[in-house]
Amino acid sequence: MKAFACPQCGASLKSAPIKDATVECPYCHSAVVVPPELRPAPPPPAPIFRTSEPDAASKSNLSWGAVLAICGAIAFSLILFMSFIAMPGRDKKPSSYAPPSISPKATPTPYVLTFGGEGTGAGLFQDAQEVAVDGSGNIYVSDDTLRIQKFDAQGKFLSLWEIPSETKYFSKIRGGPDKLLADREGKIYVVIGGVALKYDGANGEWLGAASGSDYIFDATLKADGGMVAVSAKGHDDELVVLDAKGKAV
Could you tell me where the DSSP H helices lie in 23-168? Predict the structure, then answer.
């Protein structure tokens, strides 16, 4: 056997592990070519596996197999579904079951009383505006023609009177009134502009007036016959309390 030594330093390389075509000298670190007879045998070549295309018969068998598998899955699912539907007790409602209630459609509240109509004659209205009821149930209605009409509790026409368009309190009033109030004794209060006119509801007689504001927005009666009014005077808004005689207190 030929001695295997480093050509540079002469060191023996018999003990050097040989894995490739060259080795490194452990002494001088030179790369030394390994003789062919000392090189390790190359590994055998890896086997080559060849695949061939399936013939037409094999393809046909695979296709039919897939179809049969799909059909079987569908049939199995249908069997499970029908079995679930046919389970005993599924068509029975629990003992606490109550059918959902359906609320009936809301019906409009029926009229208790209707009377009057469109016009300017007795018992008719031209743009009816305010309504008041006294302690006896008599109904008073004002419209845009400065008229106050009185009806009984059944809506039968009884009487009417007109509000003057000009007084010492106001002038050139064309429509209204703005508010109509009635107390328990049958006294009627007509709020128009900045004045509250008081009438006897029995015959339409004028009983007096309370004034002093430029305009009265709203008003209500007190139990003692007085009045509380929201009014405007100049640039100020006021809450005015009146006694039964119409005097601001």
Answer: 56-85
128, 142 contact by CB (below 8 A): yes
**Distance (Å, rounded) from C-alpha 148 to C-alpha 195?**
16
Residue 144, sorted as left (phi over 0), alpha (psi -120 to 50) or beta, turns out to be alpha
Q: Is 234 left (phi over 0), alpha (psi -120 to 50) or beta?
A: left
Which phi and psi angles does 184 have, rounded to 5°?
Answer: -70, -25
Tell me the per-residue pLDDT of 83-124, one tens digit each, with 9 for 90 and over: 666 666 555 555 566 677 777 777 888 888 899 999 989 999
Q: What are the respective helix, strand and coil percentages of the chain, to the nearest 5?
A: 15, 30, 55
Measured distance CA(40)–CA(129) in Å, rounded: 122
Burial label, 132 (beta-carbon count in 10 A; 0-12, 13-18, 19+): buried
Q: Which of 200, 249, 207, 205 is nearest to 227 (CA)?
A: 249
Stated pTM of the model: 0.54
Q: Name residues whose C-beta falls within 8 Å of residue 174's C-beta, 6 or more positions apart in sequence.
A: 146, 165
In this structure, what token pair is assigned to residue 189? 């209060």
Q: d(Cα 27, Cα 15) in Å, to the nearest integer?
A: 12
Cβ(175)–Cβ(146) under 8 Å? yes
